[in-house]
Write a structure and sequence with these properties.
Blueprint: H1 9-16, E1 24-29, E2 37-43, E3 47-52, H2 62-73, E4 91-93, E5 96-102, H3 114-130, H4 144-154, H5 160-174, E6 183-186, E7 195-198, E8 201-205, E9 212-215, H6 216-227, H7 237-250, H8 255-281, H9 294-307
Helix pairs in contact: 3-6, 3-7, 4-5, 4-8, 5-8, 6-8, 8-9
The protein binds adenosine-5'-diphosphate (ADP) and the ligand N[C@@H](CCOP(=O)(O)O)C(=O)O.
C-alpha cells in the first residue's frame, strides 16, 4: 500500500473548490506506486489523479508540471496538470506539494504484445520531438555524479567479479563523449509500470519524475532494455525490431547515435543495476514494497557488453 497521506472526502472537496472541475463524487487511494501518495478523484465532470509528493521539495516540481503541460498540449499521451482559476497547478495539502492531473485510460501490462510495443516506441519518438521546443532544462538525477556516488556505496557489498564489472563499466561510461548525439527531453524511466494501456490502445506515459535533458537515444536504450527482453534480459529480436522500426519511422537515428548505441544500452543497464543494488543493500524500512531484482540488470549489462 502506498497511501502515506490519508485524505478525507471533505478536505479534498474544500481543496478542489478553486479548480472549478465539478462536484467531488468519489475519492479512492491508489495502492500501486512506491514513492508518492496517489488518489483517484472523481467529480461530476471527469476523473483525475491527485498526487501528494512525499519526498520532493516544492521547488523541484515546476519543471515536471511545465513539461507535462507542454507535452500534453503537443498531443503526447501523458497526464495533463489541472490548474485553478488563477492558472496555478501546484498547491499544498497537509503541507506537502500536491498536483492534480488528468486521469489516463488503462492499466500497466506486464507482458506487452507487439502492437503495444510499437505504440510505446511511436509515442516515445513523438515525445522526443515534442520536447525539442520545451526550453526548460533539468539535469539527470541519475547521471554521472549519481553513478559514481552510488557505486561507491554498493561496491563493498559485491562479489569480486561484480566489483570488476562495475568498475570497468564506470570507467567505460566515464570515457564516452556523447556531446554530438541529439539531446532533449527524456522520460528516463519508461518501464512497463509507467505506461498505461486500454487493450492495445496506449492510454499514456506516467511518472515523469526522472524526466530531464539528456541524450535522446539513451531514453530509447532504457525502453528497449525493458520492453524487448526475455526473462534473462536477452533481447527478443522480433520485439526489438518492432520497437526500433517504429521509433525510427518517426525519428531516425543519426550516424553518431548508431555508433554509440551499444554503449547506450550498457549505460541504461548500469543505471538500473545500480539503483536496484542500492535499494537491495540499503532498504528504507517500510518503504520499498516491491524490491526489484538487481541481478536482472546485471545480466542485461553482461549481455549488452557481449554484443560489442
Ligand atoms: N494520470 C494517471 N492516470 C491514471 N492512472 C494513474 C495516473 N497517474 C498514476 N496513476 C496510477 O497510479 C499508480 C501509481 O502511480 P506512480 O506515478 O507510478 O506512483 P509512484 O510515483 O508513487 O511510483 C500507477 O500505477 C497508475 O495505476
Ligand atoms: N523503474 C526502475 C525504478 C526507478 O528508479 P529508482 O532510481 O527510483 O529506483 C526499476 O524498475 O528499477
Amino acid at each position: 500500500m502506498s497511501v502515506f497521506t490519508t485524505l478525507s472526502l471533505e478536505e479534498v472537496r474544500q481543496w478542489l473548490a478553486p479548480f472549478h472541475i465539478g462536484e467531488l463524487q468519489a475519492l479512492r487511494g491508489i495502492a500501486a506506486g512506491i514513492t508518492n501518495t496517489n488518489y483517484f478523484v472523481e467529480t461530476s465532470e471527469a476523473r483525475f489523479v491527485l498526487t501528494v509528493f512525499e519526498k520532493n521539495d516544492f521547488d523541484d516540481l515546476p519543471y515536471f508540471v511545465h513539461l507535462m503541460t507542454h507535452l500534453s498540449r503537443h498531443g503526447v499521451l501523458c497526464p495533463r496538470p489541472v490548474t485553478d482559476s488563477n492558472g496555478v497547478a501546484l498547491h499544498r495539502i497537509h503541507g506537502k506539494p500536491a498536483l492534480m492531473v488528468s486521469c489516463l485510460k488503462g492499466s500497466d501490462v506486464s507482458d506487452p504484445n507487439l502492437v503495444q510495443i510499437e505504440a510505446v516506441a511511436l509515442t516515445l519518438a513523438r515525445m522526443h520531438f515534442a520536447g525539442l521546443d520545451f526550453h526548460e532544462q533539468s539535469h539527470n538525477q541519475r547521471g554521472q555524479g549519481w553513478r559514481v556516488m552510488t557505486a561507491q556505496q554498493v561496491m563493498p557489498k559485491l562479489a569480486a567479479a561484480q566489483q570488476t564489472l562495475l568498475q570497468e563499466e564506470l570507467e567505460f561510461q566515464h570515457g564516452l563523449d556523447l556531446s554530438s548525439l541529439p539531446h532533449g527531453v527524456i522520460h528516463g524511466d519508461l518501464f512497463r509500470d509507467n505506461v498505461l494501456f486500454d487493450g492495445d490502445q496506449l492510454g499514456g506515459f506516467i511518472d515523469f519524475y526522472y524526466a530531464c535533458h539528456d541524450v535522446l537515444a539513451y531514453d530509447v536504450a532504457i525502453a528497449v532494455n525493458e520492453w524487448c527482453v526475455d526473462a534473462s534480459g536477452a533481447f527478443v529480436d522480433e520485439k526489438l525490431a518492432v520497437f526500433m522500426n517504429a521509433y525510427q519511422s518517426v525519428r531516425a537515428f543519426t550516424p553518431a547515435e548508431k555508433t554509440h548505441w551499444p554503449a547506450l544500452l550498457r549505460r541504461a543497464a548500469l543505471r538500473f543495476w545500480l539503483s536496484r543494488l542500492y535499494d537491495f543493500y540499503y532498504p528504507v524500512a517500510g518503504e520499498l514494497t516491491h524490491a526489484k531484482d538487481p541481478a536482472h540488470f546485471e545480466n542485461i549489462l553482461l549481455n549488452r557488453k557481449a554484443l560489442i
